[in-house]
Amino acid sequence: MRIALFVTCLADGLFPGVGRATVRLLERLGHEVAFPQAQTCCGQMHTNTGYLREALPLVRRYVDVFEDCAVVVVPSGSCTGSVRHQHAMVARRFGDEALARRAEAVAARTFELSELLVDVLGVEDVGAYYPHRVTYHPTCHSLRLLRAGDRPLRLLRKVAGIDLVELPDAEVCCGFGGTFAVKNGAVSTAMLADKMRSVLATGAEVCTAGDSSCLMHIGGGLSRLNAGTATVHLAEILASTRDPR
Asked: What is the pLDDT of residue 75?
């Protein structure tokens, strides 16, 4: 299958290893991965902060870039959620019904990574090897907006060598929430402290999730504690094998 990668702003600018891991994983499973060079931001940040008019060109760009792609994979629950639940709404807000319908059609072919693997490709054992104690944080958008359920956990349970431990109060938000962490810093910090306490209680070497944004938030807090617990994106764990090449 030919799969188009929407890499997202955070992966492109700050965590390029996530995009590379996604490509490596899908190619190992026998699929061709395309990277449309004209892709930009999905517009989630603009939409979430009320700048809908500024988001409209980004919605149009996403549709133009990915409209001819049979399947699009996104290593981010929040960006997938934006494509699915915001793009058509933004287009309709400005009376562009034609764009809204095109956006809906592209959104129906856009999948978060665990959704693509489990629901579209029908695979749970991706041949990964990761000999570490790991706990999984289900991010809010993947959990509540996409309803990804246990798909990431089903994938992680099939990873050879992994010691997967349950995260206490896993469904509680980490406190990032995009600009929420900036506008409500004290509340965000308190929520982060609770999440870090839960992560550290597991004794895990690694906290994983499907969103770089939440991992950035949690990882930043853990690094300031010198806790020795790393944050690693789900794609990077699934892309790991016994052979490092």
From this structure: 97
